[in-house]
Amino acid sequence: MAATRRHSVVKAVVPVAGLGTRFLPATKATPREMLPVVDKPAIQYVVEEAVAAGLTDVLMVTGRNKNNLENHFDRNWELEASLEAKGDDVRLSRVRESAVLADIHYTRQGDPRGLGHAVLCAARHVGNEPFAVLLGDDLIDERDPLLETMLDVQERHGGSVIALMEVPPDQISLYGCAAGEATGEQGVVRVHDLVEKPSVEEAPSNLAIIGRYVLSPAVFDVLRETPPGRGGEIQLTDALRTLAASDELGPVHGVVFTGRRYDTGDRLDYLKTVVRLASEREDLGPDFRTFLREHVAEMPAELSAESKVGNA
Ligand code: UTP
Known about the structure:
The protein is of the alpha/beta class. Helices cover 36% and strands 22% of the residues. The protein folds into two domains: 11-265, Alpha-Beta Complex (Spore Coat Polysaccharide Biosynthesis Protein SpsA, Chain A), CATH 3.90.550; 266-297, no CATH class. It is built from twelve helices and 13 strands. β2 and β3 form a beta hairpin. The structure holds uridine 5'-triphosphate (UTP). The site of uridine 5'-triphosphate has 21 residues, from β1 and α5.
């Protein structure tokens, strides 16, 4: 997959060490990011996105159960030999694809002490250069490139850049929230405050932080000094607030994304993502859409009106 444009940032960090408790028991022995979205694990979409933006050096911050991940991005000679013998070239190339996508490295987080702590585990690999962070919770449609815009903004302004999305006010407590002012550049704000998962009353805006960041290496020193915050975890949002408030370590800009984003963070959003992406697929889409229409039409009215799926 060729990048459309090169930026000076080449390293991407992908934290995959969370416990994924919302998907238990599926995530008991496998990272949440390995759950399939149609026929690829969510993490592969994320690595493809990084590579498309020119980030070919990918560091995964792993926890327990890293074997599945490593195996997915490695060659599988037995499987390849078997597909080759059958002459199944299509599946063969799909199996090989993930092993040659990027230059993938791994480091361990040990204790999952929060997203900020996971990012700090990347300090040695990243060194003293800006880098991107991509979370597997969010899949960004390849037709609406976000990361490249963020890399452009970082190149123009320096400092750090976060991705934001407007959400209905009653949903802001599910996200980190950023307050900023317009910069005169379409869709770019200068961020001056951030709060992790605020209540509706506390929220300084309806701009939610989504899972893409381009960070200054100054974040590492700040993370070392950041105490555990919400949920007893070391929060990346808290470190970003320090960066945003500092003349020396900032600025922090936000790119307000209006494109297609698919959430895989909890069960209901994950199901919606799979249905959306499967419906759009050229191979599966036509049959799947027919099935969906029939299924919905046959659904008893009382079932459609029943109480919502538990989504805690
Ligand atoms: P989440 O808090 O959404 O993921 O972290 P989680 O902890 O796996 O999910 P639940 O709430 O228990 O279901 C956002 C991202 O940060 C990573 C996760 O893997 C996820 O991609 N993460 C989180 C880490 O790598 N380490 C951590 O200590 C925490």
